[in-house]
Specification:
InterPro entries: GH (IPR017853), GH13_cat_dom (IPR006047), O16G_dom_2 (IPR045857). Keywords: Glycoprotein. One of its GO terms (biological process) is oligosaccharide catabolic process. The chain is an alpha/beta fold. The protein has a domain of 60 residues: Oligo-1,6-glucosidase, Domain 2 (Oligo-1,6-glucosidase, domain 2). Helix content is 22%, strand content 16%. The strands form 5 sheets. An 8-stranded parallel sheet has the order 11-10-9-5-2-1-13-12. The protein has a 5-stranded antiparallel sheet with strand order 14-15-16-20-18. Strands 6-8-7 form a 3-stranded antiparallel sheet, with no helix packed on it. The longest helix has 16 residues. The protein is globular, with a radius of gyration of 24 Å.
């Protein structure tokens, strides 16, 4: 087990509860910046761009997996949790990145993947070599098959990537063997979290990275790990359609909470407020809140908000339910519009740039912590026309040959579209991503979306994000707290006031009035909403006077009282 050394205190300011209203930026290492010119993003590339993130105004950087991996699922198949994959660099590169981030006032959150390992993990390779009855097999879910000769899977569970969640092994003597469980790709066998050795190993892994100074962990498939006793059948197909609508025998089992109570004691033993963030798909905001009870994790992704359409009634309902569910457990709500697994929100909201900008300002005005996905600050759209031969999403290759997607059987397999390397400059073979091209082709129209093209353009999306984050830091009314003050508004408009908590630094008795028009038409505001204050920021042009709220526009006004 890794020795538990005294962790260094990070240079980042230790504000009490920093994570409660933090803006956290997701870096997908493959696609952020290439430091060695091989066409693949890496840790030195990220390190070189940290000043950009500090200037953007975020509080922390979340790094998607960079561990040693065969890359069957873009690094979410981990072969060694204490090693860096050579395509991304070395452990020294990780140390340098963490240190420089702290010097810039940025915190670092890393992914941890505890539900499953790679099939190249030494534990799993030994389990296969040693055969049935091996103690190594108890660290995963190996089972004999059903049927006269064990030719059928042990149960009817389906993989998130499509097809059965079981793969049959071959015994050392060449005969057909047991089956093993993989809720994702066959290259990602699920750990058995009833095994004490598995629990001990991940305690050690957490300490390894905490000793290096990371500020927290984003927990992949946090709702997985514990399976229902006896691994019961579901009794029907199309199980992915139920994800996030009901508790399943392989997801959101109550036993996961014991694990997180254990992990919280480890996090709390380190200085600097280290945090745990759950990626938990649950049936309701109330179920998500269970992961954030006192003594468990600090944050959980708000997937219910991410999947809400741009419609005032639906948005108000999900905002209220999100805040209401977190308040009893004392946890902050999180807000997110895009990530590495979903269609970028510009495209998801109909490809309307103004609407996407309005959605961003609405999100950043809500109390709690906000997550940004790399490139959204540039207004990048989803890349929808990638050649089949360049795609690397494992679900893509498990699609039925006679169907356009795996809908009903698994994910659609088209996640590569949000993972295309981002443009830094308007020129060059990869728009400044690196000197050796990019691992996924970038659209030709991205030159005008590059960082260099937007930096000095006051109307650009990049400048909007920088302005919004700067205001959010200056104004205690934004981000902090656990509620909003709704105001009566015309149909299709969200109107609420944010006030600073009593005694908050910088509080002057003022407030921020937020108005969001989710319709495609300009709306004349009633007298009670026409603000008599100072315009802080608008997602698009706003007529003088403030009594007209343009279509698909969000506005922040500074008011008094």
């Amino acid at each position: 087990m890794t020795q538990h050394l005294a962790a260094p205190t990070t240079p980042a300011a230790e504000t009490p509860g920093w994570w409660r209203d933090a803006v956290i930026y997701q870096v997908y290492p493959r696609s952020f910046a290439d430091g060695d010119g091989d066409g693949m993003g890496d840790l030195p590339g990220i390190r070189a761009r940290l000043p950009y993130l500090a200037d953007l105004g975020v509080d922390a950087v979340w790094l998607s997996p960079f561990y040693a991996s065969p890359q069957a699922d873009a690094g979410y198949d981990v072969a060694d949790y204490r090693a860096i994959d050579p395509m991304f660099g070395t452990l020294q590169d990780a140390d340098d990145l963490i240190r420089e981030a702290h010097d810039l006032g940025l915190r670092i959150i890393v992914d941890i993947v505890p539900n499953h390992s790679s099939d190249r993990h030494e534990w799993f390779r030994r389990a296969l070599r040693e055969g049935p009855g091996s103690p190594m097999r108890e660290r995963y879910h190996f089972r004999p098959g059903k049927g006269e000769k064990g030719e059928e899977p042990p149960n009817d569970w389906e993989s998130i990537f499509g097809g059965p969640a079981w793969t049959r092994t071959t015994n050392p003597d060449g005969s057909p063997g047991e089956w093993y469980l993989h809720l994702f790709a066959p290259e990602q066998p699920d750990f058995n979290w009833e095994n004490d050795t598995v629990r001990d190993e991940f305690r050690s892994v957490l300490r390894f990275w905490l000793d290096k100074g990371v500020d927290g962990f984003r927990i992949d498939v946090a709702h997985g790990m514990v399976k229902a006793e006896g691994l019961p059948d579901m009794g029907h197909s199309g199980q992915l359609k139920l994800l996030g609508t009901q508790t399943l025998p392989f997801f959101d089992q109550d036993g996961v909470h014991e694990i997180y109570r254990d992990w919280r004691t480890i996090l709390d033993a380190y200085p600097g407020q280290r945090i745990g963030v759950a990626e938990a798909w649950t049936p309701s905001a109330e179920r998500t809140a269970r992961y954030l009870r006192p003594g468990e994790l600090h944050q959980a992704f708000n997937f219910h908000y991410l999947s809400t359409p741009w419609e005032a009634g639906a948005l108000r309902e999900v905002i209220d339910s999100s805040l209401d569910s977190m308040r009893p457990v004392g946890a902050p709500t999180t807000w997110v519009l895009s990530n590495h697994d979903v269609v970028r929100h510009l495209t998801r909201l109909g490809g309307d740039v103004g609407r996407a900008r309005a959605a961003t300002l609405l999100m950043l005005a809500l109390p709690g912590s906000a997550y940004l996905y790399q490139g959204e600050e540039l207004g990048l759209p989803e890349v929808t026309e990638l050649p089949d031969e360049v795609r690397q999403d494992p679900a893509f290759y498990r699609r039925s040959p006679d169907e356009d997607s795996t809908e009903g059987d698994g994910q659609d397999g088209l996640r590569d579209g949000c993972r295309v390397p981002i443009p830094w400059s308007s020129e060059g073979p990869s728009y400044g991503f690196g000197t050796g091209g990019s691992w996924l082709p970038q659209p030709g129209g991205w030159a005008k979306l590059a960082v260099s093209a937007q930096t000095d353009d006051p109307d650009s999306t990049l400048v909007l994000y920088r302005s919004a984050l700067a205001i959010r830091r200056r104004r205690p009314e934004l981000g902090a707290g656990d509620g909003v003050e709704w105001l009566d508004a015309p149909e299709g408009v969200l109107a609420f006031r944010r006030r600073a908590a009593e005694g908050a630094d910088g509080a002057d008795g003022g407030a921020v009035l937020v108005l969001a028009n989710t319709t495609g038409a300009d709306i004349t505001l009633p007298a009670g909403l026409a603000p008599a204050g100072t315009l802080l920021l608008a997602s698009g042009p706003v007529p003088a006077g403030g009594d007209i709220l343009p279509a698909d526009t969000t506005v922040w006004w500074a008011t008094h009282g």
